[in-house]
């Protein structure tokens, strides 16, 4: 039987559930039921973002959940993210307050800077050309994030899609340390050095696109999804598990948190049933060997921005 922990301790003493429900591209008409079902079957961590445009529907789900009374606010770990148009320090607290009002919450568990690069406010949400880039330094943004903690609007703050130099620059200049770095990790992009780099700095990693966004939009040239790999299917058969469960279990073995997205009840359930088996060293070695350093989510159209991370 697996002895995997269901939570990780953060560097501020709080804890984060190792598996959360992702909600990017979860449409308004499906996300409410997905969140309610996920919480009903045991998920305690929900990942969203202002950019996903579904905070209001997630807020409605949370309202229903708390009204029912079986799960309380303090039992859940709710994450949202500051979008790139709002990197000016003066915008950070107001944007968090706006997200809280959509989510119908008094406080957040974790607020992340979604990307290190900013856009001008009036090019919302995505610029058409580089004239719409803003050169606000993410250190200024971070000061706004720290204000969010001081005002008790969020318990923790963190980063997403920052590179090593950017992360170290924040650590060198911050008053409140980031607890999390959220970035892409999956067998096609195993990021082992980067995970170690974060762990060495006492920063927990959250893996997005853990299932390589099966069947959805990808950067050109992206390899086939690992869940379609014949050997991964074989590995799953040994344990009576699906390829997606093998992949998610592998990611947990790296000592990171994961946020697979689904709006399909059977898959939401499947994705959390990964704590009752162990992969052999040989299986883990095979999954490690699949690394190709490909990214599903690179935002490569902004690579000429001075703070583009990759
Ligand atoms: N910080 C960032 O910049 C960033 C970037 C990307 C993502 N994220 C976060 O990370 C979350 C996860 O990443 P993602 O949504 O891009 O990709 P993902 O979780 O790797 O893949 C989601 C896709 O896989 C399908 N799926 C889920 N479980 C499955 C299963 N057991 N078997 C087969 N297919 C399955 C889903 O379909 P159905 O929904 O139709 O079931 C959906 O099409 C996001 O939702 C978001 O919360 C953050």
Automatic annotation (TrEMBL):
SUPFAM superfamilies: NAD(P)-linked oxidoreductase (SSF51430). The record marks 81 as: Lowers pKa of active site Tyr. It comes from the Eukaryota. GO terms for molecular function: oxidoreductase activity. InterPro entries: AKR, AKR2E, Aldo/ket_reductase_CS, NAD(P)_OxRdtase_dom_sf, NADP_OxRdtase_dom. Transmembrane segments: none annotated. The active site is at residue 52. Substrate binds at residue 114. Signal peptide: none annotated. Residues 19-291 form the NADP-dependent oxidoreductase domain. Pfam families: Aldo_ket_red (PF00248). This is NADP-dependent oxidoreductase domain-containing protein. It comes from Psylliodes chrysocephalus.
């Amino acid at each position: 039987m697996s002895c995997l922990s269901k939570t990780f301790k953060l560097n501020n003493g709080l804890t984060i559930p190792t598996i959360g429900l992702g909600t990017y591209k979860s449409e308004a008409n499906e996300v409410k039921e997905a969140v309610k079902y996920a919480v009903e079957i045991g998920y305690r961590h929900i990942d969203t973002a202002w950019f996903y445009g579904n905070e209001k529907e997630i807020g409605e789900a949370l309202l229903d959940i708390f009204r029912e009374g079986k799960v309380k606010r303090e039992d859940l770990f709710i994450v949202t993210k500051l979008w790139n148009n709002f990197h000016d320090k003066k915008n950070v607290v107001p944007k968090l307050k706006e997200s809280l009002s959509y989510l119908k919450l008094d406080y957040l568990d974790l607020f992340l800077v979604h990307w290190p690069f900013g856009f001008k406010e009036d090019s919302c949400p995505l610029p058409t050309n580089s004239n719409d880039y803003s050169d606000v330094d993410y250190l200024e943004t971070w000061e706004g994030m720290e204000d969010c903690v001081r005002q008790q609007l969020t318990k923790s703050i963190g980063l997403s899609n920052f590179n090593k130099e950017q992360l170290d620059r924040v650590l060198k200049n911050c008053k409140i340390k980031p607890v999390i770095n959220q970035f892409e990790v999956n067998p096609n992009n195993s990021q082992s050095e980067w995970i170690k780099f974060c762990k060495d700095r006492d920063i927990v990693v959250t893996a997005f696109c853990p299932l390589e966004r099966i069947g959805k939009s990808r950067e050109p040239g992206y390899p086939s999804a690992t869940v379609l790999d014949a050997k991964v299917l074989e590995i799953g058969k040994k344990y009576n598990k699906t390829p997606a469960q093998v992949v998610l279990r592998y990611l947990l073995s790296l000592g990171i948190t994961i946020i697979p997205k689904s709006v399909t009840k059977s898959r939401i359930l499947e994705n959390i049933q990964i704590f009752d088996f162990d992969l052999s060293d040989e299986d883990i070695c095979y999954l490690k060997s699949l690394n190709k350093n490909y990214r599903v989510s690179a935002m490569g159209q902004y690579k000429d921005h001075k703070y583009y991370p990759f």
